[in-house]
Amino acid sequence: MKRVAILFLMGVLIGGAQSTDEQYLKNFYNTALLNGESYEWLDYMSNHIGSRLTGSVGAQMAVDYTKEELDKLGLDKVWLQPVTVKKWVRGAKEYAYIKTETGNTNLPICALGGSSPTLPLGITTEVIEVKSIDELKTLTRDRVEGRIVFFNRPMQADLIQTFEAYSGCVDQRVHGAEEAAKLGAAAVFVRSMNLRIDDLPHTGTMSYGDLPEERRIPAAAISTSAAEILSAMLSATPDLQVHFKQSCGYRGKVDSYNVIGEIKGSEKPEEIILVGGHLDSWDLGDGSHDDGAGCVQSMEVLRMFKVLDYKPKHTIRVVLFMNEESGLDGALKYAEEAERKNEKHLFALESDAGGFTPRGFSFDCNDEQFNVISSWSTLFKPYLIHYFEKGGSGADVGPLKKEGTMLAGLRPDSQRYFDYHHAANDRFDAVNKRELELGAATMTSLIYLVDKNF
Amino acid sequence: MKRVAILFLMGVLIGGAQSTDEQYLKNFYNTALLNGESYEWLDYMSNHIGSRLTGSVGAQMAVDYTKEELDKLGLDKVWLQPVTVKKWVRGAKEYAYIKTETGNTNLPICALGGSSPTLPLGITTEVIEVKSIDELKTLTRDRVEGRIVFFNRPMQADLIQTFEAYSGCVDQRVHGAEEAAKLGAAAVFVRSMNLRIDDLPHTGTMSYGDLPEERRIPAAAISTSAAEILSAMLSATPDLQVHFKQSCGYRGKVDSYNVIGEIKGSEKPEEIILVGGHLDSWDLGDGSHDDGAGCVQSMEVLRMFKVLDYKPKHTIRVVLFMNEESGLDGALKYAEEAERKNEKHLFALESDAGGFTPRGFSFDCNDEQFNVISSWSTLFKPYLIHYFEKGGSGADVGPLKKEGTMLAGLRPDSQRYFDYHHAANDRFDAVNKRELELGAATMTSLIYLVDKNF
């Protein structure tokens, strides 16, 4: 550690005042790539702990582990912030198949997060395919009643930024069951939010709106490959029968935590610059991209400040939020507590778009602030960071917006994100060490510049 | 096909003259992502044909297949250009192990391309580790003679562009054996050109310079993980013995081909704009990234022009070069024939850096030309293409430089490239469909703009 700090100091001294920023960024990137911790942390989170479904043992283990690791960094304060969360469990492995005269055709499915179960013996019924909630609403009740509504609108492949394609489809997953239930459907299948054709169902949160419990119908994601097969078979045999069973459901509430650590600011300790990701994940993979990556990158920001002996003017705080995936409980709790304590958050950066090669950031701030931030883009050019745009930030930092905080989101390359998102292959081996580390260095560089210039 | 062309034409008409370029680019990207052929071609090349080592049956099958596919596109001319190549074969699987008292420790190795074999029973000797050719040259002959020289300088992880890290290390692989042989070494092991620590040896070409055949010593790549282990064991036991055997060697010359197709220019048919990659690969994987990707992307450029009914002013020619990997025979033959026929090449674009998300291009041209090209960068912004720099182009288009051709190389994201480069895991499943297609669209867009503006 000491050697790194001395080399860094030498670099700054040699570089002179004019190029101090350049030198700082170079040292952040060098440290992340040569002596980074993010990949080892992620290895532990993914391979030793595994999935971190809200309310699960894994989620609690991740709370304990990340607190312990933050404790080792010599920060000024590390603590747990209690959050009560609802516990939802998948139960026994779900299954569905098309009944045919020559045998059954298996359909890889998984329950959507928050879904109700089927009847214990499952259901067997016809399927009606629609491409959208709007199309569903054109159907009469007798076409829908008692059937499985199959939402099969694919993500739009010609959109360059895959998050746009996701936004254009995810209403089926979130609101499909509620709307289908209103027309008396027995269940819904939703095409997985995946741009590839493969056999993996992708889970994700869904909502029944105000529907009372007894009207809540089971909802499952179906793999893109199975969606294509089911659609083709429905064209040939509109009255085909599908059998479907799942056993998921809520199991009360449990105590959980946001994990928080901070370095006190030397000049404006009362102004907080936040960096974070979410600790919970879905249960099918190990959540390495979503959002183990964002957690370890955020921890790495504070670790690098300590290792390189950078004393921030503002308080730099890392927050690992609990339950981003199904309720945003941690983020809401954090914002509520911040308001209660009258804390001032100057800036909040979220990393929750995967551990892929970073391309830049999107910002939710005013024009004046954006002009200041944009002026730093040349500093990032040697690192091939080029994307500085106004736009969304992230779900967990969102609740801070009302207090006027500048918000930002790391924007990694998005092409492969939905290959893994919420699916069983979101695993450690899908994360490249360098790409993860470059993200951490890019975030650290931005936080440094915000600290220095605001 | 027809429907696509009509939609495209409508797009251009609606867009008006001012935004014609925007509309063209949009159509190239849409077509590549929604109706591309590049991924299917690569599937065939990688999974049906497999590796395409120069002089192998696979290489000949790839010549036949790509010619056949180009024939289907309705180009103005498709032909094979004969190239004589030297045939090198790996022979029986290589092996090496450290002899220890408690048993042997296996070292994953592979012969470097062009290497000589060991003696039929292999060799058993001591190992001397160096970090560079310079360090080797400081050693006296008696330290080296009869031993295996182990070049163990890692790629520099803090360089952002991994090709720079490769350039900084590859001299060990190319010239290590020649220099070690001059000091009487028995063989060389070279640390694989890989930024990860894993068990895969990465092959690649090497040269004996002017050394006569009897002085050529066997050379092998050793996996990064085994390099770390061997180095650690040498620290503890400098006189440890390694056994090493490989059976590779040259097997004469064979006839092979460059595969060429073109669309004749409508205004300046005598001026050629070339786009290409190389058809040969190493034998350990299936060469999907290196350079199956570049081949199918180059073919896709001409296919999209045909599908979208774009009539280029200049002749647009695709060239799939033979034997980039170990001699550049195809590229040299192509340039020689071009000179003999007095052909004028206006521009030549190579894709040989993997099928990853495209970031832009590097150009080898004069300032005036570069200014024109740079002015197009805003057109590429919606596609997150931001890298327009002067610099290298590619090995296969290099020989055209002497006739004043503008040269360019596609620059995809390079972070993962050396995870796969020349190793057994350079396989189809390491290529993401969207990333490959975005590269093809980006290349097509550049070729369109060059055709229109020069």
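Residues 433-453 of chain B form the longest helix (21 residues).
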